[in-house]
From TrEMBL:
Transmembrane region(s): none
Keyword Zinc-finger among UniProt keywords: yes
InterPro entries given in the database record: IBR_dom (IPR002867)
Keywords assigned by UniProt, alphabetized: Metal-binding, Ubl conjugation pathway, Zinc, Zinc-finger
Pfam families noted in UniProt: IBR
Segments for region (Disordered): 73-96
One MF annotation (Gene Ontology) recorded for this entry: zinc ion binding
Protein name in the entry: IBR domain-containing protein
Domain IBR: 1-60
Amino acid sequence: YKALVLHLYLSKEPSFYWCIGPNCRSEQYHADSNPIFWCDKYEFRSCVEHKVLWHTNLTCAEFDAKVDLHRRETEEEASRKKIKETSKRYPGKDYS
């Protein structure tokens, strides 16, 4: 019970982060502006801003742009698929 209460308390602290590595329960205060979280236990890197594995060779802004682009492409593909499934060609119209 004490461990759960401590975990809850620390999770509310803005500068406190838990490692997101597999099977890792390491934690640390991360008060500087560098978004890289280094897990000393497993030498694991993650991004404290995005809470994902560290996006190697990309800044956080570049990562955001890549995620936004992927989301837009996925949404556009879903729209094209839905239009193809639900619309009909106008009779007599040449679409070539």
